[in-house]
Amino acid sequence: MNFRILVTTLMLAIGALGFVAKGHAARVIDLEVGVAPPPPRAEVVIPEPREGYIVERGHYGWDGSRYVWIEGQYIPKREGHEWRSYTLEQRGDRWHYRPGHWDDDD
């Protein structure tokens, strides 16, 4: 068999495997953090409800190296889908953070 044809075939096969794996990858990731979050803010402004939007409250999120405050926001509704709010919970001596996401982003 021609060496060039063999290499091309192998590259296409590897590329196809990568494409399939990417198509099934989760878009939302649970993060495990070894540091407790800061105390809750004394005053958290909760935006008023708006037609056609979901309100997500302000909260602490993890940016990969530290906790950061994420302001409350309006998220446009997606017909036929459910918004899953962020979670930040303690499990043993670790904390688990999962950002808010749509049910089809799992």
- Portion of residues in beta strands equals 25-35%
Helicity, in percent? 10-25%
Structural class: alpha+beta
The major beta sheet can be summarized as: 3 strands, antiparallel
Tally the helices: what do you get? 1
Give the number of domains.
1
Mean pLDDT: 78
Based on CA atoms alone, the radius of gyration comes out at 21 Å
The shape is: flat
Distance from N terminus to C terminus (CA atoms, Å) equals 44 Å
Topology as H/E string? HEEEEEEEEE
Write the layout of secondary structure elements.
Layout: H1 3-23, E1 31-33, E2 53-56, E3 59-62, E4 67-70, E5 73-76, E6 83-84, E7 87-91, E8 94-98, E9 101-102
Antiparallel strand pairs: 1-8, 2-5, 3-4, 6-9, 7-8
Verbal overview:
This protein has 106 residues and is α+β, with helices and mostly antiparallel strands. The chain has one domain (28-105). The chain has one helix spanning 3-23, and strands at 31-33, 53-56, 59-62, 67-70, 73-76, 83-84, 87-91, 94-98, 101-102. The strands form four sheets. It has a three-stranded antiparallel sheet, with no helix packed on it. The chain has a two-stranded antiparallel ribbon with strand order 2-5. A two-stranded antiparallel ribbon has the order 3-4. It is flat.
Brief account:
This protein is an alpha+beta fold. The chain has 1 helix and 9 strands, in the order αβββββββββ.
Keywords:
flat, alpha+beta, 9 strands, two-stranded antiparallel sheet, 106 residues
